[in-house]
């Protein structure tokens, strides 16, 4: 049995945050983690300290586990598509580290009695299909009754310990490439307000469903050592992790930032998200955006769901990478550490 159209229309009413996969703000997260002791272990190659996309635990000289977890409330109304997007978003953390996903566990919060179980079936089916597309296996999961519908995955992948993509390996002179357009938060919010046409909606959904597998594998093939996926902390938030971890300044060209159809125009027309406001409050002291256009700042602050990878490459490898990854765009460069972590112009 599949969900009825009436059920589908109501799905996003179970999301408290319109238009984005709501996360704790960067400042809130840093404050919370500040009270949690760090227990060192020589096998833990990448932990929480650098705000990398996933943890990396070494099993032997040529094999490491890459582990992550991500879940959120519906950002689209079709349950099967929501399952696909949530799964692609979680799998992205493994790809962002240069890993290959192996297994996944489903995480479900479901408002039992308020939605038919056919909705949950479709969500799980979408998630399972996307896990299989990534070359991994859905092995189980855990569910609870919750007032807010939520779905996501805990993913375990594998990587070579010497062939990782991390926040802390950008080199001065590297070129920064973004592999998906920005604006998922703005477009999803506009969609909930019935301000999104079918072309823009289709582009939004296709972008969020797309895996970052090709972008990750191409990064490794072209000698990249630094990458991050762009999600709820926006392009500027995730760029700040690269800048801090690598002790560099990231310079971004605001006019070069790729956008989903109409994203800048939606912001100019008054569409706003709470996630962007939280990002701005935390990032304002870290970014010099005095020469940037307001609409470019808004795009760079927009919280993404299942966004692309931001990859740092040596200049001689950029053309080949752009050819290998459809839709990728050069958006900036890595410079010696200056007065701010990021310059957006």
Name of the level-1 CATH class of the largest domain = Alpha Beta
Major β-sheet annotation = 7 strands, mixed
Coarse morphology: globular
The separation of the N and C termini measures 52 Å
CATH topology of the largest domain: Phosphoribosyl-aminoimidazole Synthetase, Chain A, domain 2
Task: Describe it.
There is one protein chain. The protein has 345 residues and is an alpha+beta fold. The protein folds into two domains: 5-159, 60s Ribosomal Protein L30, Chain: A, CATH 3.30.1330; 175-344, Alpha-Beta Complex (Phosphoribosyl-aminoimidazole Synthetase, Chain A, domain 2). 36% of the residues lie in helices and 23% in strands. It contains twelve helices and 13 strands. Strands 8-11-7-12-9-13-10 form a seven-stranded mixed sheet, with helices on both faces. The protein is globular.
Secondary structure elements and their pairing?
Elements: H1 5-9, H2 26-34, E1 44-46, E2 55-60, E3 63-72, H3 79-96, E4 100-110, H4 117-133, E5 137-145, E6 150-159, E7 175-178, H5 184-192, H6 198-209, H7 213-221, E8 226-229, H8 234-246, E9 248-252, H9 263-268, H10 274-283, E10 287-288, H11 294-301, E11 309-313, H12 318-324, E12 329-336, E13 342-344
Parallel strand pairs: 4-5, 9-13, 10-13
Antiparallel strand pairs: 1-2, 2-3, 3-6, 4-6, 7-11, 7-12, 8-11, 9-12
